[in-house]
Design brief:
Chain lengths: 351, 350, 385
Amino acid sequence: MSETITKSLSPMPQERLLQLDNVGVHFPTRDGLVKAVNGVSYHVNKGEVLGIVGESGSGKSVTARSIMRLQPKYAINASGTIRYRCKSGEELLINEQDRLGRTMRNLRGNEIGMIFQEPMTALSPVHTIGTQIMRTVMLHRNVSKAEARARAIELLTKVQMPRPNDIVDRFPHHLSGGMRQRAMIALALACDPALLIADEPTTALDVTTEAQILELLKRLQDEMNMAIVFITHNFGVVADIADRVAVMYLGRVVETGTVDEIFYEPKHPYTQALLQSIPRLGRSHGRRLRTIAGMVPDPFNVPTGCSFHPRCMHAVGGICDVQTPEDVVFASGQRARCHFAGQDRQAEAAQ
Amino acid sequence: MTTISKTSVPMHEDHIISVRSARKYFPVQEGWMRRVKGYVKAVDDITFDIRKGETFGLVGESGSGKSSIARLILRAYDLTGGEILFRRADGSVIDVSTLSDRDLRDIRREMQMIFQDPYSSLNPRMTLLDLVGEPLVIHGVGSQGEIRDRVAELLRLVGLRPEYLTRYPHAFSGGQRQRIGIARALALNPSFIAADEAVSALDVSVAAQNINLMQDLQEKFGLTYLFITHDLGMVEHISDRIGVMYLGRLMEVGPTDEMFAKPLHPYTEALLAAVPQPDPRGNRARKRVPLKGEIADAMNIPTGCPFHPRCAYADAKCRGEVPELRVVKSGRQVRCHHAETLDLIGVAAE
Amino acid sequence: MTDIHTLSPETLLSPPLAPKEEFNADASYTAKPRTLIWWRFRKHKLAVVSLAFMVILGLLALFADFMSPYGPNTINRLNTFAPPNVVRVIHDGALHRPFVYPLKRTRDPETARVLYQEDRTKVLPVEFFVRGETYALLGLVETNLHFFGVNDRRQQINLLGTDSLGRDLFTRLLYGARVTLSAGLIGVAFSFVLGLALGAISGYYGGWLDAMIQRLMEFIRSIPTIPLWMGLAAALPIAWDPLFVYVLITIILSLIGWTHLARVVRGRFLSLKSEDYVLAARLAGASEYRIVTRHMLPAMTSYIIAALTLAIPEMILGETALSFLGLGLRPPVVSWGVLLQDAQNLRTISLAPWLLAPGIAVVLVVLAFNFIGDGLRDAADPYGQ
């Protein structure tokens, strides 16, 4: 039923937009080397939404930033390859590009857009929304100022900004939180990117605004046939927006699969336990929450073997604490990085 | 001790807290002379009761004034108007808002708070012994040795090793720090604890641990909780009754099950619909219509019903007339003109 | 589908491979805040070196009368503008105990200028614990013991040369350090009291009081310092006791210097007031006194010490500048600023460049205090990232 994957650099399938293989990002710190990302592999196909969920310290944001080569200068790209299929169709090895070079600058904005949790990190406080979008458009496209302005207003309309003709001349601090988020999305979409990386874009928002932004992203993704890498710690948000999901824990992807597989047939004990620890509307009133024992270990002392073993209810001594598990691949394409994924013992225990 | 004013309706036997027409206005100042140019009505005409031994949940978006309520009850802020009654352990009722500083100190033994940020709510320069023991020292409870024993016992109670007494907070993770905060709140055996976004800053798995701990402690000591959060799943899980706040006002109060199964206020309905569920098939099945617009500026609250600009059911009456919080036939309270005629959708219980 | 309805007590069991909760006795977990600050400060190498330098200089200044070979005002008419002696260990190609070559005084026949030449035939060994002029050690013990010197009636050892009156510059530099450093410390102490009080009132009470103090601070900071100093110093009667003048000068300096410190204290108070743990203490029933002394001040001390350290060089520069301009301390008081007055004209400097030594000392001390202050500031909050 399952097989371990082989790592090779065979050409990406035609529908593949982005592929990460065994990516490792380490940070030297005063207290030692932090392996923030430790062998992450995932891929995104054209026009699909990949949700990446994980708790703090899982390395989900660091991985996404390394796609854009936006990590801090002292970060060490320890291993792996990041490949991207450009609009022209050719494959690009992102991890071999100069982080400040021409190719990367063209990639950012023109091919890949990025939005953040805090819009003010992406928007300049001293320029109007319109100016910022126009600059991006004019940088990547050969258009006149008037055309760029028309494009800015078009984009603001597209992200359902109220009164786009007025907002285009406003500064970011004039806008509310949700409107800033929309402005940032408009900026990221300025050149019709094929891929949008969304790093916790709704975490700081209220639930009603979050719902608006999620609806907007879903609609834009559909209209523009754009792929999205959506990073969040919120399982509800992932269930709402993602086509496929990658669950991360301590710098590794522990499970990937379609959104239905992850939510209804999770194979990794971590995914199973996490899903059970979330209170659900209309279901959990008065009942005890399931918990995961212990805490997320600090990044300096990542457990040996399967890094989840000290907190896992199904861990087996001599195996889980010694051997690092490989991905177990199921017929449907679902993958779980667990020694016992799909085996009876674990299925039994999960009951 | 202050007795309640003659005009007050006596407090119900079962109630431990009674917030009555509470108002808190913050002045907005301008210029170097600090001229007051207006007021932010953080809390406006709020009335609700908390029953002894229950968990009362308070939900709302940022800027709804839910945190201000906790701080008013605990008298971290002074009320602008209204009264807040508290039933002490000996059965006597006092108005927290008019207590003198001395009486207030006494009352602090019976009501405590758990904070949102586990990092800023513990003084990093104090050991666990000093932190958890501080309330005991302040109220002169016991000798040094007794305080030490009591702190060790409190730590054990929240699942921390008593050997940690001499450690400083930086030795602990966010979840553990939150437990230290809980131990500190419990030090003087309070009867009422306000938890302000107590688990919002924690990771999912750790939040669940702490929620379970809080429920265990409630059972063990008969505590009453005011649980403030923006997380509807969490508030449903822990609360017996819930109040929904919007722009400084209570929109709806009622038992959790009834409210979530069938909300009476359009805002409650919209909130419930907005929460993304960890259930992809369910999400696809239910047609979500996101609420339009955003929460209004607290300086310029809309006329009439504060929610009317975003409400799908608003009519002329809503735009012109401020609805009162009123009791409808089922005994639930709602601040909406059309509560009886609307048929709103909640979340289906399974 | 995993069933979330089965939430039973078995979920409380610990996982099979959960580590036996070992008692990790990491020293940093129980280390006192000041230990953590020290650990962090230690990583700032330049600050540690500067601290050592200042400790040594401080001790030298404190025991200036013992450490220096002569008295600060001892005039030697036959030894004016003598160049610095070089302490050597090799004589005639052979290792020798530390010594200096005596100087032979001659006169240039054309310009009638006094010239000094080393007499390489004679050896003047540097002796330790020699008898010399009588002084009172720390103002208490009458003694004539000096740390080093030479046993010779005619010859002197002048490590940094002598001035126009033949006074030993090394000796005067040490005595000057006493005055200059203490002027810095006393001035900072005054501004500390002013700054802490006004900053605390400003930050703690806020409101119109805060606004008033803020405007006052801005007003003081907007006054150009040199003219203000000159005006104030000119107001001091010349006949007053030099020591009294010295105290007044430091007060004048601190009247301007306190604003910076007040700003730091106010900022800390403001940020601490909104800190959750201060509210937590208040909700625990803590008195205002307890909140300020137990929660707010301990969180501020390290910042205050850092700010004070950074304020000392300003004081020292102020004193030096005033005295150099002849508006501050006046002879016979010996301070670095006073010593630098001798280096005011070009001719003297070209003839006796060693008279600039106090200037170098000022630069070194100011740098050292700045490095220490930087190190302290970085270490002040050992809990931040």
